Amino acid sequence: MAIHLRFRSLTVTTADAEKTYCFDGPATVVSGPSGTGKSSLLMLLKHVVGGKAVLTPAVRDHVLSARAEVFIGEQHVVLKRAVNDARSGQVDVLDPVTLATRNTFAVQADTDLPPLSDYLLGALDFPRETIPASRDGKATTRDLKFTDLFAYVYREARNIDREVVGHLDTWFNTKRTALFKLMFALTDSIVLELSRKLGELKEELRKKTDEYENVKSFLGATDPRTEDQLRAELVSLRDMLQRADAALASLRHELEENTAADAVLRQELRAAVGSAREAAQEVLAAQDLVEARAAVVAQVELDLSRLDRSTTAIEKLSPFDFVVCPRCMQRLSTRPVPEDHCVVCLQHDPHDQDVDPAAIAQTRRSLDLQLQDAKAVLEADTHVLQNAHERAQQTDFLAQSLRRQLDAQTRDLVAPRFDAIADASARAASLRAAIDSVTQLRDSWARAHAIERDVRDIKAQRSRATAERKARTAELAARQNLVSDLGRDFNKMISQLRPAPWIQSATIDPSSYLPVVNNVTFESLQADGGGVVTSINVAYSLSLLEFGITHPDVRVPSMLIIDSPRKASGSNLDDQARGHRTYQRFQSLAEAYGSQIQLIIADNDSAPIPGTAFGKIELDYDNPLVPGVVHPGPEHTHRAEDES
């Protein structure tokens, strides 16, 4: 059954006055000349429920707040929202009798206050869903909000003759179709959750696949050996390392046994050799750092040189207006040159700031400072290098002195073993480095296999989710006949309103859920006249409204706000007759369903048919929408649909 939504009144408050507009009965017509505030009244209804309303200067400058008494679901409350001040981002929920504040909600969800949309959708018992979407080729989601649902309620004058529930807005169109499916239960939370999951899995699969290909490309470019070859080589290297370690241990044991008396001297020599090795490493590191610093200095000097050449070229050549090519001496005045382009190279002339002497001077100062800093750092690092050289020389000298002393004592026994130990140590170190290199490559292969397993798992999850969504969608497929039924009702509504004599058939597209007339899409009907298109659009909205009332399992809002149902219609007899039929349909719906529905219609003229079915709100230049503010007259009108 249609979800219950109804406005009972709207109170507009200014600094000096307050006025309440009542919506009595199932249908209310807001009438008055252009610029008296009909559309603004409807926009204020949208404003109080959290929508982004288009307000005229008269409303923005004078209205302090708008307050709407509303029935939403089972709740009867008053919604109050300020206009154009610091609290306009909040909506107060008031008690309808005492007007005491019950709660305050935020229009936007990114504040400390609870979001208004969640409150309104909860009151309607309408599902609060997040729908899958894509942005820049990446999976993302969008929350369905009450203001999105309100687009099915409020048909604004500015687009009623060109689009159906915002279907031309590509950003909103996804939400529009998702809301239609939810209203007709063509989808549900399970399907939407599975769709979101599939979008996430698709994005994750793309990332993992790219990562796998990158790792494989790295392995192929780094080392041609296969994983099996690396495994065999690692076994061989570890075996050689084990033998090398054993030989080194044996040499050291022999040395310890034969030179026990020289233990102290050997210990000093080992320390000296280690210090010499560290000093040599420090020298190498310092040399690398000095080279890097020198490269920075050279680059900055190059930038200064380039700046000097550029400055000189600008100073020398900018005063000249070339009339002939400086290369081939052909005249340049005979060819067309766009404005602000160089007559020689046809490129855009540089901006003034690009050749501004002050900017060039500032750049030079910046480069000079960079050069000073770079030279200072280079000098400091050079000093460090010198100190490292001195320390290396000292440690080498110490090690050589200790070695000569030890050689003198154990010339025939210790020295040869020291050389053998050094060779064995170097061999072991080389083997360990080779093992580390192979191990890193094997780790990369292991990572590739892990990513490949992840890819298989993601594909399996995607297959399961796809199957689940397909099964759930199949369960809901039987409800697709509701769209066909709606199409028949829409065709019947078209036959009653008769927008144009050439219309032979009308239905609802089963995939886009948009009107199709004479097998032609809605946007293709624009050339047939705005009045005809407006009438088709009104027929679509009325069909949805009535379908929701007559089908208990369809959750269409029970309210419809139409701004200018006769927009773009002329004053000839056919246009008048079409408007007359439209209001007859309004009247028949109001009489048939009574309090089950609510129609609020804004029009320049009052209802063209007699009867008590229509409540009236009449505005004029003496009694415009905004109370206490004198209207300047018909020559000074601001229409809400013309505002941006």
From TrEMBL:
Transmembrane segments: none annotated. Residues 191-261 form a coiled coil. It comes from the Bacteria. Keywords: Coiled coil. InterPro entries: P-loop_NTPase (IPR027417). PANTHER family: ABC TRANSPORTER ABCH.3. Belongs to the SMC family. SbcC subfamily. Heterodimer of SbcC and SbcD. This is Nuclease SbcCD subunit C. It comes from Streptomyces massasporeus.
